[in-house]
């Protein structure tokens, strides 16, 4: 997508230095647009852990880049299995919920370990990392093409009046490589001249909605309004929401959806108001090995500091301020929740829109699902 008239993806290889990976530092947005260079797998680990890169498809691509950088540290092919396995395990441990990370790393490891010469191994790692970036980008573009029909239908029903879409967290191009997952149909609808407006959940505690989604929608000229996380239900009761679209960090073969904490409450409110609640996700965000999202998806627990402090600009400096009492209080900071399949109207994938149940998912992804 464009930033100040220039096209960007969220991760790429340095154009003048094949041994460095570049990312947009999401921790600085929306206050400053900063590009960071990553030279080692440890740099990539830190970038994922510290959320300089974040969002399921993007951390999958970052993991692949981390493995590529690990191959550049090798002096001899014989050391590859141990060094790469150690790096892979470390990278995978950086964020537990999004499945894209493990999928990207495991797929790449399987290919790399077949190769017997070091230069060939490094060149293949370079290609595979770029392929992963290209794949996630392509998935998002196609999710947009598949999902735009939902917005078109509502616009038609409303006789061209604005379609109001609510989203939670950032499932935009920043969380992916380009286009986004939940936002891809929105960007395409906007491009087609359909009137859209997005209700952007602030998404406490890290404010991915107000800091990232609102920034990227506004940069692209898509009308949007930031709302406090608890506002969605009220808007739905008053006919101010036509459609909810969210992303996913991991979805089971039965259609249970893990996404940013608070998503489940939006799904409940949508169901109570008979509103469509769609989840947009690439095939790389499915975990086809599991059937029960509530029991089987690991939910990341994050630092209490995200709850006790808030970060923003103060006197032109990035500042962190304390917002809660310290004594006698404990904190529980769950990063994600699981929305049961029964609350999901449909899954918008790169292959089409399917129902959130095992039969419908299996029909669309029989080749990836095996048994
Ligand atoms: O903790 P984050 O910011 O990495 O969360 C991931 C997300 O951006 C959301 O859960 C998103 O809706 C799914 S990823 C496109």
Give the topology, please.
Layout: E1 2-3, E2 6-7, E3 11-13, E4 21-24, E5 35-38, H1 41-49, H2 56-72, H3 80-92, H4 100-112, H5 118-157, E6 163-167, H6 184-191, E7 196-201, H7 208-219, E8 224-227, H8 232-237, E9 243-246, E10 250-252, E11 257-260, H9 263-272, E12 277-280, E13 286-287, H10 293-296, H11 305-308, E14 309-314, E15 317-322, E16 336-339, E17 346-349, E18 352-354, H12 358-364, H13 366-369
Parallel strand pairs: 6-7, 6-9, 7-8, 9-12, 10-13, 12-17
Antiparallel strand pairs: 1-2, 3-4, 4-5, 10-11, 11-16, 14-15, 17-18
The structure holds 5-S-methyl-1-O-phosphono-5-thio-D-ribulose.
Residues 54-56, 169-171, 175-176, 181, 208, 246-249, 259-260, 335 line the site of 5-S-methyl-1-O-phosphono-5-thio-D-ribulose.
User: On the 0-100 scale, what is the average pLDDT?
Assistant: 96
Q: Which cofactors or ions or other ligands sit in this model?
A: 5-S-methyl-1-O-phosphono-5-thio-D-ribulose
Pairing-aware structural class of the strands and helices?
alpha/beta
Strand order of the largest sheet: 8-7-6-9-12-17-18
The amount of helix comes to 25-40%
Which runs of at least 5 residues are low in confidence (pLDDT < 50)?
none
Strand-residue fraction? 15-25%
In one word, what is the shape?
Answer: globular
The end-to-end span amounts to 38 Å
**Total DSSP E strands:** 18
SS element count, helices? 13
If you compute it from the alpha carbons, what radius of gyration comes out, rounded to the nearest whole angstrom?
A: 20 Å
**Major β-sheet profile:** 7 strands, mixed
